[in-house]
Design goal:
Largest sheet: 6 strands, mixed
Strand order of the largest sheet: 2-1-6-5-4-3
CATH architecture: Roll
Structural class: alpha+beta
Helix content: 25-40%
CATH class: Alpha Beta
Radius of gyration: 14 Å
Shape: globular
Number of helices: 5
Distance between the termini: 41 Å
Strand content: over 45%
């Protein structure tokens, strides 16, 4: 399976909140870096993302580039909270090795995200 295919399967599962489908696509030593969390293993990453799974309602891919085992995706994530709903544009850069994501980096407008998901 190509890196592009693996990333797209992961994005579809993750941003629909289906971690059971997303987890097998991620290596145990997955390293994640984002504006709100950094994780150095799969379990820590998915544990940190539980609140997102509860409000994510899918994504719309806007643009994607792939080069060898590197994939960069720009997409809108649909979020729905008790207080509000809307979309946030995000960029994720993933590295795939041996059929699994080994790293991911997310860049997003944190102000737009916090407008939909305020800090409690």
């Amino acid at each position: 399976m190509s890196a592009l295919s693996i990333v797209n399967q992961y994005l579809d599962a993750f941003y629909s909140g289906d971690f059971d489908r997303a987890k097998p696509l991620v290596a145990n030593d997955f390293h994640f870096q984002g504006p709100f969390v950094e994780a150095t293993d799969k379990e820590t990453f998915f544990k940190s993302a539980i609140p997102l799974a509860q409000i994510a309602r899918g994504h719309l891919l806007l643009r994607q580039w792939a080069e060898s085992d590197e994939v960069c995706s720009i997409f809108d994530v649909n979020l729905e909270t008790p207080a509000s709903k809307g979309k946030v544009t995000m960029t994720e850069w993933h590295t795939v090795q041996n059929g699994r994501l080994v790293s991911g980096r997310v860049i997003l407008d944190t102000a737009a995200f916090r407008a939909l998901v305020p800090v409690r």
